[in-house]
Amino acid sequence: MRQPRTAGFTHKISVEGNQMAYAETTMLEIYGRSFEHTDQNTLTRCS
């Protein structure tokens, strides 16, 4: 059985005013299959 591995990773960040947005995608090879997992969010600065 092959070990799971990270096949790739992308990360994008944008900052505008009081907000920072990010999106990241991890490409995985696990259980004999390839798939992507994406996480994204927007954070707002509180004063």
Keywords:
47 residues; mainly beta; single chain; three-stranded antiparallel β-sheet
Quick overview:
With 47 residues, the protein is an all-beta fold. It has strands at 5-16, 19-30, 33-44.
What would you say this structure looks like, in words?
The protein is mostly beta strands and 47 residues long. The protein has one domain (5-44). 0% of the residues lie in helices and 77% in strands. The chain is built from no helices and three strands. Strands 1-2-3 form a three-stranded antiparallel sheet, with no helix packed on it.
Question: How would you summarize the topology of this molecule?
Answer:
Elements: E1 5-16, E2 19-30, E3 33-44
Antiparallel strand pairs: 1-2, 2-3
Alpha carbon gap, first and last residue? 52 Å
Secondary structure category: mainly beta
- Name the poorly predicted regions: none
* Rg calc: 15 Å
- Work out the number of β strands: 3
The helix-strand sequence is EEE
Q: Major sheet: order of its strands?
A: 1-2-3
Q: What is the 3D shape?
A: rod-shaped
**Count of all domains:** 1
Helix content percent band: under 10%
Mean pLDDT score, rounded? 94
Strand coverage percent = over 45%
For the sheet with most strands, the description reads: 3 strands, antiparallel
How many helices? The count is: 0
